[in-house]
Amino acid sequence: MSTSTTRPASSSQAGAARRLLLIDGHSMAFRAYYALPVENFTTSTGQATNAVHGFASMLLSLIEQEAPTHVAVAFDLAGGTFRTEEYSEYKGTRDATPEPFIGQVELIQEVLDAMGVRWLTKDRYEADDILATLAAAGQGEGMEVLLCSGDRDSFQTVTERCTVLYPIKGVSTLRRMTPAEVEERYGVTPERYPHLAALVGETSDNLPGVPGVGPKTAAKWIAQYDGLDGIIASADLIKGKAGQSLRDHLDDVLRNRRLNRLLTDLDLGVDPARDLEYRGADRAALTRVMEALEFRTILQRAQRVLPFADASDHGPQGAAAPHGPASALEALAPRVLGQGVEPGRLAEALQDLAEGPLGLHVIGDPRPGLGDPRLVALSDGERAVVADPSLLLPDDERALGALLADPARRLVVADAKGAAHALAARGFELRGVVADPSLAGYLCRPEQRGYDVDSLVQRWLGIDLASMEDDAGADGGQQGFDLDALTAGAIPADALRCARRAAALLPLQEALDAQMGERGALALFTGLEMPVSECLGRMEALGIAVDDDVLAAREAELDGRVNHAQAAAFEAAGHELNLSSPKQLQAVLFDELGMPKTRKTKTGHTTDASALAELYAKTGHPFLAQLLEHRDAIKLRQTVEGLRKAIQPDGRIRTTFQQTIAATGRLSSIDPNLQNIPARTEEGRRIREAFTVGEGYECLMTADYSQIEMRIMAHLSGDGALIEAFRSGEDLHRYVAALVHRIDVDDVTPEQRGHVKAMSYGLAYGLSTYGLAKQLGIETAEAMALRDAYFSRFGRVHDYLEAVVDQARRDGFTQTMLGRRRYLPDLSSDNRQRREMAERAALNAPIQGSAADIVKRAMVDVAEALTGRGLGSRVLLQIHDELLLEIAPGEADDVEALVKERMGGAVSLSVPLDVSVGRGGTWRDAAH
Questions:
Q1: Its Enzyme Commission number (predicted)?
Q2: pTM more than 0.90
Q3: What pLDDT, in 10s, does the model give residues 765-802?
Q4: DSSP state, 140?
Q5: Residue 163 pairs with which residues in a beta bridge?
Q6: Under a CB-based contact definition with an 8 Å cutoff, are residues 132 and 263 in contact?
Q7: Domains in the chain, start-ordered, CATH in brackets?
Q8: How far apart are CA 806 and CA 826, in angstroms?
């Protein structure tokens, strides 16, 4: 955030100076909503959070930049005010509240509660009146006041001791409206700004002004006649059309002035000096609400910026004991290769570490095939040894390599597979890993977004490792790792950082073991997530062969599609334009072509993908057809471009699987993302043609589960009709549609089948009736009727879904078939939006999570069986519910039987786990 003048001195600099920060809650929330795209700020449960994110970011910036000693936020209440009682059209032309904005104010208020910021409302009055009252009271007690609002009516509060922070770009850039600034911009003093507004009107409030009288004329009259009262008294003397217009609309002017006058004497029951003092945030509450909103960066920033009322409480485990892990880390004096450890003598230093488990921390590039370790630290919790692998002599390499490869050494490593990839670049094999705190932290709190060492140590041990970084500088530690520059009195700063993180891993894992024990997650950790991590590491290292010539051909074809769609769009529009410019698209769609307006945003009517698809469904206009084709082709071209850039020198692509992202347990893929290559479109399948069998192998094989979520639904609900649907041998969705519509299977239409399929999967994913209606393009009442008909035939599915939420509300968590828990404290929240978010999560977590667990178990079982039977075939990828294998010569039949056996037997369900298998020379050909 920036402001147009220099930040004032903080309260600490000003001694006893007190600064009161006041914020117009609704005004700034709406600005935040329109400043950030909804589609980029939505939680995994479907809750829009862009207004919350923008508001929280703005507030943190204000607290950091302005250093207020007192803070308050005022909000409007729904319903009328004394202004609408006088003039029913007041603010009557404002657009309806956008659907995604609904509920976000309540979430903002919960964020404010966690931040320790007081917020106020008052029945029949606006936030502006609350702020004006507090501003006057604060100045009366000698406080400096900053009032943040996007409403120009607030300018009347400006004085030498009250500055309005007025947004001029979203909520990130604010202009400081001082008395001089108001007068320079509007030609009147702040106290007379409402006189000017009464004359010219205020469009946003639906207060019409005097026709033909603009700000300059109004300012001239105010100066000439000494304010609005003088203008009214002299109305008959003002000549010309403007004067006549004034006389004709004098009642409007008087009404405007009554309505735009802010009240400064409301009885709020609040004393600013006493009740609005900012004492700091509630650490636990702040962490809870930010993690529910999935605001990782905002949480980290808040922890850095805000004071905490519970300053002695450093996290869920409380403050570290005086002689606990924190003091041990502060006192840690690592032995560094080249300082305390002579080159060639690393083995002796490593032998000095205790015989028990060791923490291992690696600083370097963790990407498979591209990694490189810059620093390696090993610690027993009290001592540490740090080495730069590039400086190791042969004896050092042998000693370090032997320790890392010893399966009995018991190493604790955060992001173990990333560390393994980095070490592999120097020829080291990592085999002794017994625990990964990143995975343990994820199982304990899967809703969080940070599982790096620093985040975990702060969360579970209450230690801020970053705050210790200055120690190295104070001790003369230099950045970098220059062997020649090392002296006996200086430990390199990055070596000390690496050592402290290695030393923190053992107490961290101990704390996480206790938490996993309480949450019933130990078996899942040791029996599933750790083996999955090891399996994924091997898959990442293998990669998959790619034919770059095929990708180059696809890229050229897609480039042609982009150009053709662009030319056709220009022809349909009648002229050239920038198809990526929302402003130009708005002009063509709504002004030139006269299409129905889409959802209103701050910058005009939206042109996002979903809105354009809906518009095309309504109009069928050729311009929209070509625009959507253009966007689709560009997206596919970008996918192909990304794949080509990711090809490594050996002709293979190596993705990175993320194991700690989705709260349901699903894996994701990055650098490149191989899960976003469409499998159901011809263009997506043509991209898959480029993924080929590697040299020395016979073919690729795909194996995936058929309708796994629905099978889990049938098993968990015990619904006889749904179980019978799987056993009938008929097409599942056609069979279910026949039951729902009470017709023969042969009479089911494609539309009926599609609607029922969407309903079935929607239930598994917690889709609301409104969401179903939007997805199918039907009325909500029709979607409700379909839902009712569905449940009338599958009553136990309905009972199960109801019971899942009720049970989760009693237990505080929901869990999968394999025991993966997701704690949902918001199920009992008084905040409706937070409660509904938690209910959606409670609905979808058991089914989605069970599916994810089953696929993970199947992947590990298949990989272990291949190795156990001495086969040369190997698992390369997991894409959602599909495994992709590379088959060694002569092994295809054996591997197919093995895959069906292991995947089909991953768990026991009341319906069979159907596994489909295909083979081919490319990923596309192997589809089935």
A1: 2.7.7.7
A2: no
A3: 767 787 788 778 788 888 899 888 888 999 999 999 99
A4: H
A5: 146
A6: yes
A7: 2-179+264-291 (3.40.50.1010), 316-542 (3.30.420.10), 544-653 (1.20.1060.10), 720-793 (no CATH)
A8: 13
